[in-house]
Amino acid sequence: MTEPMEDLYSRLLQDIRFKEGLKACMNCGICTGICPAAEYYQYDPRRVIDLVQTRNNDVIRELLKSETIWYCGQCMSCKTRCPRGNTPGMVIMALRKLSQELGYFTDSEKGRQQFALKRTVGDNVLKHGYCVVSYDVDPEAHPEQGPAWEHYYNHLDDSLARLGGELNGKEGPTRRISDDVLDELRSIFKVTGGQDLYDAIEEASEKKAEEMGMEFRKEGRDFEYFRHVVTADNGCHQSEPEDVRKDVYETGR
Amino acid sequence: MKPEGKKRIWAEYQKEIPDDHFFYVRSCIRQTFFAGSEQCFLKILRDDLGKDVFEDPRHTTCTGIGYHGDVVPFETIQAVVARHFALATEAGYKHIAISCVTSFGIYTEILETWKHFPETLERTREDLYRATGRTFEIPETISHASDIIYKFRDQIAQKAKYTLVDINTGKPLKVVEHIGCHYSKMFPKHGVGGAEFPHVLVGMVEAWGGDIIDYPERRHCCGFGFRQYLVQANRGYSLFASRKKFESMEPYRPDLIIANCPGCTMFMDRWQYTIKEIDGITYGADGQGIPVLTYEEVAGLVLGYNPWELGLQYHNVQSMPLLRRMGIKADPSERFLARDGSRLPDPVNLING
Known about the structure:
The structure holds 2 protein chains of 2 kinds. Chain A is mainly alpha-helical. In chain A, 58% of the residues lie in helices and 0% in strands. Among the domains of chain A are: 8-111, Alpha-helical ferredoxin (Fumarate Reductase Iron-sulfur Protein, Chain B, domain 2, Orthogonal Bundle), CATH 1.10.1060.10; 131-176, no CATH class. Chain A has helices at 8-13, 16-21, 30-34, 36-40, 45-53, 57-65, 77-81, 88-101, 109-112, 114-128, 146-154, 156-163, 179-192, 194-211, 224-231, 242-252. Chain A starts with 7 loop residues before the first helix and ends with a helix. By secondary structure, chain B is an alpha/beta fold. Chain B folds into 2 domains: 22-145, Glutathione S-transferase Yfyf (Class Pi), Chain A, domain 2 (Up-down Bundle), CATH 1.20.1050.140; 152-334, Rossmann fold (3-Layer(aba) Sandwich). Helix content of chain B is 46%, strand content 8%. Chain B has 17 helices and 8 strands. Chain B has helices at 3-11, 28-33, 35-48, 64-68, 74-91, 101-116, 118-132, 145-151, 153-158, 181-184, 200-207, 227-230, 235-249, 262-279, 295-302, 307-310, 320-326, and strands at 22-25, 53-54, 95-98, 141-144, 174-178, 211-212, 256-259, 292-294. The N and C termini of chain B lie far apart (52 Å). The chains are: A mainly alpha, B alpha/beta. At the A-B interface, α2, α4, α7, α8 and α10 of A face α2, α3, α4, α5 and α6 of B.
């Protein structure tokens, strides 16, 4: 496939978060010093900004296809500390948006995870009116939620009744969002480009699944490609090997 | 420095928190994991403080987790939030009370964007009208729900049935506070005390008798990281960040962690369980875990609410040691009850029993 010839830096400038997030970086590296992602992953926000500032199309395209842009956790600690008022976290948000619009996100293992985010949080928004719903946090998929959550999940009606809520009730916590309200949300997504982004993620992911020879379904989560993107880990993302990390923990105590 | 100069400097770290008439916007995470905490906030404001809080059942998610998970565009979330403003406008409310730090950060980001890029406000108005036929006024104030509890902290203290003092020793309880990154790291002027001197939880704890612990990783992220927790393969990121905080606070032997953000509350509770299961490590005194409570739950305990109706039993780290220190008599056998009042089997492997 021929790569598009458009100026990617200009595309980034169309995103207000990019305009606001990157004024004039002097590459001091404070963002990297404060960054929780830089501590965990092979990630250096100073370097990302440095690469973007080259305005070189090939360099930016490589970035859009890379694992690098998916490591940030968007805590935005970088915004507080940057002496020039930049926000590398917002630059990352603009890079991720463009990577998805151009279909480049499926080139990286971490980027492909966007499909899982769309099928979970993304679909929840338009189906239920919430990003997260209690009946969707299955303890089997979330062992870290522990025994308290498992108990709550297995006795949702009883637990909620005591706390003042009613599952799918008319008001209060975990109430049902009515169909006319969901229609308003869907309409907002259509008008503002939210639905287009969902469609772009679906389309590129289906193509990638085919390329990888994996089963893909138009809905749901119980199929090979979904399971693959949520669990795949090639072991090359972290800043130090797992055994070194473990040693640090053990000797540090 | 002259007192006038000090006052001028500190004025930059204050924010206007209205006295009454709030339009309440709810939180996906708080209602899912801490429903009792959300209800407690409403009860305290309405029943204990006599305030008017309006809640519209047509209010939805702000889509914030989708936005920071990068599947929801900025234009879309602006229009969703504008719809919430439209509901407030239609109901005649000008003060928004926000129950979620992620949402709060998004509201501040959107208001600042509209101020600095007025064309984005115009576009949002057009988008919302085209999509829903609704129009809106920009609210006069936005407060995080904790800002409001902070404002009324002394009134709550006056009504207190219990304080954050160990009844056995007479000494203040040692409390770790965690305000959550998006409360004021992005737009400091919207938070009490800004990013440098966040005071919203400190003020509550001190008003209710506790001592705040200052520790090296006090401002470190809990590790939510949005996609870093939501996708199974990335969860080590989230665990790593929380663990760094626990190891940093451990030497101070805190009695309690009080958290501003429902997500942070959940992670610091869940990761303590995970670390105990994997490595057998706990971070509190005497081999116990450190209870992690929301500020509403702490306010509720101070005011004498039933801990099990607040939902403290639905934390992996149970609060019995804390309740005993505060002098609160709560029967652990009444934690897990069915709707008809019959006893459900207790979960196993909870921390602190």
